[in-house]
Amino acid sequence: MSLEQEIFEQRCQKLKAIAELGQATYPHEYAFSHTLPQVVEKWGGADTADLDAQKPEVTVCGRIMSLRPHGKTAFLDLHQGGARLQAYVKMQEVGEKIWQLLNLLDLGDLAGVEGYLFRTRMGELTVHVRSLRLLSKALLPMPEKWHGLQDVETRYRQRYVDLIANPEVRQIFQVRARVVATLRRELESRGFIEVETPMMQPLAGGATARPFRTHHNALDMPLFLRIAPELYLKRLVVGGLDRVYEINRNFRNEGISSQHNPEFTMLEFYQAYANYKDLMDLTEQMVPAVVKEATGGLQVEYGEQKIDFSRFRRLTMRQALVEFWSDDASRPTIDQLRKPGSTVQLVKDYNAWAAGEAAHSPIHPPEGTPEGAVIAMLFEAVSERQLIQPTIIYEYPAATSPLSKKKEDEPDWVERFEVYAAGMEICNAYSELNDPLEQYRRFADQLKARERGDQEAHAMDEDYVRALCYGMPPAAGYGLGIDRLTMLLTNSRSIREVILFPLLRPEGEVEIMAAVRAAAERD
Questions:
Q1: Do 60 and 76 contact (CB within 8 A), yes or no?
Q2: CB under 8 Å to 463, separation ≥6 — which residues?
Q3: DSSP H helical segments within 339-497, as ranges?
Q4: Residue 44: pLDDT above 70?
Q5: What is the count of structural domains for the chain?
Q6: Range of the domain at 78
């Protein structure tokens, strides 16, 4: 029997002993007067004399994270909502039964206490306990006090324990909640309305990515988990909802990395009668407002970098490629990037340089890859990781942007931008293509790319083309990665740190469950 199983059995016996005392082991409710954060906020600054004079009565509850018996007295620490409050128990005042109950409690148990507040000789705010009640028994032990729960996979798999053992994890998700709330306020103050679109779709559209497939039994039809809500949101713009947004869960059947999770959250919105330049301006207003509300300032630390969201730099994709090209001898010019056939030599030059750099990988564009798509590949390889401060990269190749409106003076390029910070893309936006015939041709080009082996190429969505035939106003659309922005604002180096329950491989047999089954069947 493992140590964990032994502790489980011991605590099951304690639970039985508590029941024999006439105490409810899992009561249905507990009527508290204050939360622990409320107690700390209201009386944390009160001095000893005021507390002695008032003896404020409180009924509070929390998880026992420290238990220190001293003869016929004991101190315990209750934790709740990120706050801690000490409780003092004296056998002479609580009586024999509650004292016996106290001696059957363990670290991790949830308990409620009733009493009055005072300060100890050490000056610590404390509840002088008159009554104590068990609210829930922790049958498994908490992580070791000083080191906490540190194994990364265990933290993600057992997030419930991670939140108990590592207080800083709670802070990450509080920041995330403030990010989402502020985005809603910013958009609604500008006249946007929140909507919901299907998560199961007959076609996976709105982005270029591999989807998850499922099947609807009653309708006997294949379905896809959405990779983006874009085409449904734009259908609403056709229908006259000029400013719509959705905070949405997306699913992409792709690899897992520090910046990618198969299930992730995005803000996506569409604004009629606007173009991509309008959304660049909006970005420079909205994102700093979110950062300030979530963190209290406009500068955040990410690794060894300090990211300043008070200003954004703007570069075209081609300008960024030229600026960050590492080899001065082969550095291209903007004019060269506009000439047909220029990318063949650029790829050779880049691959020759990358061969000697462990951190860089060569690129191998498939035969027939459009020139703009090759420039995008070079940009990703050369420039992305060097975009540390907030930067708007705009003007993207049409070959990689099947839903964007083309530039009037350069039909092979589109009115699109992405926002980068700390080497990560956090936002994608563009002027929306609203010409149904051009959209049909773009979808047809994507089908040809799929025939060349591009499994992420966009499908043909005929109903969306039909919607455009009813007329969609000029519009711009925007997608912001909630997870990646939260990573930046909480100095989290992995996207799994900011997702409560990231996808993990199956765990296999859980050893403790044998003891749980035995106890359940025995009792």
A1: no
A2: none
A3: 342-354, 371-382, 436-451, 462-468, 482-490
A4: yes
A5: 2
A6: 3-145
Q: 130, 112 in Cβ contact below 8 A?
A: no
Q: Is 270 in the same domain as 207? A: yes
Q: Is the CA virtual torsion 24, 30, 33, 37 positive or negative?
A: positive
Encoding tokens for residue 74?
């004991």
User: Do 110 and 217 belong together in one domain?
Assistant: no
Are 168 and 135 in a shared domain?
no
Residue among 97, 100, 126, 124 nearest 113 (CA): 126
CA-based nearest residue to 86, from 95, 99, 74, 94: 74
Tokens of 48: 């000893």
In whole angstroms, give the CA distance from residue 310 to residue 292: 10
* Whether residues 172 and 53 fall in one domain: no
Paired strand residues for 264: 250
Q: Which of 145, 161, 195 is the last residue of a domain?
A: 145
Assign 3-class secondary structure to 440-471.
HHHHHHHHHHHHCCCCCCCCCCHHHHHHHCCC
Which CATH number does the domain housing residue 177 bear? 3.30.930.10
Q: Does a structural domain hold residue 407?
A: no
Maximum C-alpha span of the chain = 91
Q: Check residues 139 and 208 and name the one with the higher pLDDT.
A: 139
Q: What is the mean pLDDT of residues 256-271?
A: 94
pLDDT tens for residues 46-89? 999 999 999 999 999 999 999 999 999 999 999 999 999 999 99
Q: How many CB atoms lie within 10 A of CB 440?
A: 17
**Distance of alpha carbon 401 from alpha carbon 343, whole angstroms:** 19
Highest mean pLDDT among 301-310, 345-354, 362-371, 401-410: 301-310
Mean pLDDT, residues 475-479 taken together: 97
Distance CA 490, CA 175 (A): 7
How are beta strands 475-481 and 263-272 bridged, if at all?
A: antiparallel
Supply the Cα-derived Rg of the chain in whole angstroms: 29
List 272's β-bridge partners, or say none: 475
81 within a domain of the structure (yes/no):
yes
Section 184-189 average pLDDT: 98
Say whether both 185 and 136 belong to one domain: no
Answer yes or no: is 327 within a domain.
no
Q: Which of 145, 166, 196 is the last residue of a domain?
A: 145
> What tokens does 54 get?
């008032």
Which amino acid, one-letter code, is at 152?
V
CB-based contact 135:110 (threshold 8 Å): yes
Average pLDDT across the chain, whole number? 93
